Amino acid sequence: MLLALVCGASLLLQVIAAGPFVNNQNKVQVVRYDLDTDNLPNSYKFHYDASDGSSRTEEGAIQNLGTNDAALDVHGAVRWYNSKGQLYEMIYKAGKRGYRTIIKKVS
């Protein structure tokens, strides 16, 4: 019984003393970022490119401003590479009619 307690305590100490797992992959960084807010709060635009080749573009604008029918209309695109190096793109649109997407393989 004492041997089991000593072994258990030893194992617990080894687990506690062990350093955390460190992932050696480089973190993705934003390499370009553009933001246009000149017409806020009525509309906006932004775009960014990341170091892994992914990117995102989005534009939004209020439609029917000043009426009971006012609604935010947004559209944009996201591009990314999968683990096999294939480029994908998702195009999206959101507004009064809901959220719609199209995803396609680009290359």
Automatic annotation (TrEMBL):
PROSITE patterns found in the cross-reference section: CHIT_BIND_RR_2
Any GO molecular function: structural constituent of cuticle
Alphabetically ordered keywords of this record: Cuticle, Signal
Name under which the protein is recorded: Endocuticle structural glycoprotein ABD-5-like
Domain of life: Eukaryota
Record organism: Bombyx mandarina
Entry keyword annotation includes Nuclease: no
Annotated signal peptide: 1-18
Pfam families cross-referenced by the UniProt entry: Chitin_bind_4
